[in-house]
Amino acid sequence: MTAPTAPTTAIAGLTAVVPAGGAGTRLWPLSRAGSPKFLHDLTGSGRSLLQQTWDRLSPLAGGGVLVVTGRAHADAVRSQLPDLAPGAVIAEPSARDSMPAIGLAAAVLARRDPDAVIGSFAADHVIRDVPAFGRAVAEAAAAARAGWLVTLGITPTHPATGFGYIELGQELAVDGAPSVRRAARFVEKPDAATAAGYVASGFRWNAGMFVVRAETLLELLRVHHPELEAVLREIAAAWDESDGAAALERLWPSAEAIAIDHAVAEPAAAAGRVACVPADIGWDDVGDWASLAGLLPDAGPGAPKVLALDGTARALDSTGLVVAAGGREVVVLGLADVVVVDTPDAVLVVPAGRAQEVKDVVAQLKAAGRTDLL
Amino acid sequence: MTAPTAPTTAIAGLTAVVPAGGAGTRLWPLSRAGSPKFLHDLTGSGRSLLQQTWDRLSPLAGGGVLVVTGRAHADAVRSQLPDLAPGAVIAEPSARDSMPAIGLAAAVLARRDPDAVIGSFAADHVIRDVPAFGRAVAEAAAAARAGWLVTLGITPTHPATGFGYIELGQELAVDGAPSVRRAARFVEKPDAATAAGYVASGFRWNAGMFVVRAETLLELLRVHHPELEAVLREIAAAWDESDGAAALERLWPSAEAIAIDHAVAEPAAAAGRVACVPADIGWDDVGDWASLAGLLPDAGPGAPKVLALDGTARALDSTGLVVAAGGREVVVLGLADVVVVDTPDAVLVVPAGRAQEVKDVVAQLKAAGRTDLL
C-alpha cells in the first residue's frame, strides 16, 4: 500500500466546519472568556490558532469553510478571517457543546447539497505536519462518502492521560482510503497505567476530528437523539431564508447540550458505523502552558522557550517558557522549568509541571468576582 | 547602668544629614536610576524610605534635617518632604560618594554654629525600633560633643557577609553616653567563616551611621584629605551667600570622590578617635529583595510576603515575596521562596536565594542599551 499524496486540489464536496469555542482557561492569563485561545497567536507565527486552522483547511475544503462560534466572538472571527464567505459564520446564541454546533452545520449543508461531506476540526489545535493532515482528510472524505462516520486517530507520542483514545479494528476496503480501519470503540481519558497499555496496544488519540456525510451524521443523530435532530433540521429549514436568525433564536435553547462524542460517535462505534484514519500529523491541543512549551522552537540549552507577542524577554540561567504579551520586559533569573506569562493586566508564574492547575487560578478569580480578569 | 530613655525633646544642636543617593540596583525593577530606592515605599507603610527616615530624624534633630542628594532627585525629595526647611536640600552636581556629601554639610553647618553636631543617616535604610534608635543617637550626640567621631554599631542578627564590621574596644566614660565604647577598628565585608568569628567576638555591623561635631569631622578630614577639606570649606563660605550655587558648580568637580569610611572613619579609628554606641535597633539596609522579604509582615504559613503598592497579588501554594507595583494582578502558583516583582514596564522572577544577582540583570540591561528600564 503506498501512502496517498496530499491533495493538490480541494476535496470535492468537503465543507470544513470549525467549532470555535472554549475559553482555554488553562492558558490564562492570555486566554480569556472575551478573547479565547483560538483568537491568539500561540506559536509566534504571526497567525492565531483560528487563522492557522483556516490556512490548512481552506485549500482542502472544496465546499468552503464554516465557523461555528459564540455570538460574542463572531465579529472577531470575521475580522481574523477576511476571506471567509459571507454567511459562513454561525453565531450560537449560547454554548450548547459540540453536537448542536456541528449538527446545525450539517443540517444547513445537507439542505444545500444532499451529498455534502463535512469535516469538523477545532479552531484551537496545532497541526505541525499539514501535508500529512491533508492526506488523512482526503482518506477520511473518501471513507465518509462510502457511508462511514470517520474520525482521525492521532498516533500517540506518549501515554497521555489528558486525551480519550480510539481502539482500532479491522482494515476496511475503501477506495481512496487505503489506511482506514474500523474504529472499534472510543475510551475515556485513562489513568497512567491504562494509558501505557493503550499505547502499547496501538490505540490512537481521539482529537475530536470527524469527517462524515452531513446526511449520515443527521441519520445517526436521529437514531440516538431524535429531538435534537428535529430541532436542528427545523432551524436549517429556515436558515437560508429570511427568517433564519429568528428561528435560531427561538429554537436554539431547546437544542440538547451534548458533545458529539457522546451523542453520536460512541454509540455509532458500538453499532459498527465508525471508521478511523490513523494520522501522524504532529497534532497538539495546546492544552496548557507546558504543552505550548513543547511546541515552541528550542531556544538552546539553558534557555527558556520564548513567545514574544507584545513584549520582550530576558532569561539568565533559566528554562521553561516565557510569554511576553504585556508590552513589557520580562526577566527570569535562576529558575528551571518555570512558566511566566505576562499580559497587560495580569502576570502568572507557575512551574511547568503544575501548568494544569492554572484552571484553579481561574476558578479562584471567578469566586472572587474578578470578572475583569476572566 | 540603666538604659537611657528615648529623648522626649530634640537633641540640642544636632542636625541630621541624610545622604540620599544610590540607585539600589539590586531592587530592580522597582528601584531605578530615575526613581531610586529611597523614594519608594518598600514596607507598605504608605511612606517612602526617605519619608520614614525623615519621620524618625525630625523629632530628634534640634538643628533640623538636611538632605544631600543628586540634582536629578532634588525636586522629588522636596516633594516627598514638604516640611523640610527651605534651603535644606543640597543638590550635588554629580555623585562623589559620601565624604564630599557629608563633609559639605558639615562645613556649611560649622560656619553657622561652631558647636554644631551632625548625625549622618542614609535615606534608604529601615529601622524598626525607633525609640531605641533615638536613645542611641542621644548617646552618640553626647559622645560627639565630647570630641569623638561616633558610629552606631548594629547588633548582628546573623553572620552577614554583606556588611563591614566594627570591633569594639574599651568602655569610655562619657556623660550621657553610658554604653559608648572605643571603636577599635573597622573591617571590610568578611567571608562567611570570618563573619561567624566576628559575631562570636561581639563585633558590630557598620551601618555607616556617624554622629560627630561638624568641626571635629572637618579637622579629621584636614588630617587625612586636606585638599578635600579646603574645597568643602570654600564652597561652604559661599553657601549662605548669593554665590553659593555658582561656587558649588565651580568647585564640586574638584572634590575627591571617596567614602567617609575610607576617608576618615578608618584612619581615625586607627588613631583612637572613634567611638561606637552599640545599637540594637532593628536596622536593615534593604539590600535586596530577599532582605525586604525578611522585613515584611508574615502572611501566614504557605503564603508569600506581599507588598501591594499598585496592584494585587494572589498566591496558591507558594512562599517568598510578591511585589505588585504594576497596577495589575500578580498570580504565583506552586513556587517556594520565589520573588516576583511587577512594575509598569518590567517584571522580574527570581528565587529569593539568588536575589543578589539582580544586579547582573541591571548590568545586562545596561549593556543592551535598555536605558529605558534602568
Description of the molecule:
The structure is a homodimer of 374-residue chains. With 374 residues, chain A is α/β, with parallel strands linked by helices. Helix content of chain A is 31%, strand content 25%. Chain A contains eleven helices and 17 strands. Chain A has helices at residues 49-57, 74-80, 98-112, 130-145, 192-200, 214-224, 226-239, 244-251, 260-270, 289-295, 358-367, and strands spanning 14-20, 65-70, 89-92, 117-120, 126-127, 149-154, 165-171, 181-187, 204-213, 274-279, 283-284, 305-308, 311-316, 320-324, 328-333, 338-342, 346-351. Chain A has a five-stranded mixed β-barrel with strand order 6-9-7-8-10. In chain A, helix 2 (74-80) links the parallel strand 2 (65-70) and strand 3 (89-92). The relative contact order of chain A is 0.15. The model of chain A has no long low-confidence stretch (mean pLDDT 94). Chains A and B meet through strand 15, strand 16, strand 17 and helix 11 of A and strand 15, strand 16, strand 17 and helix 11 of B.
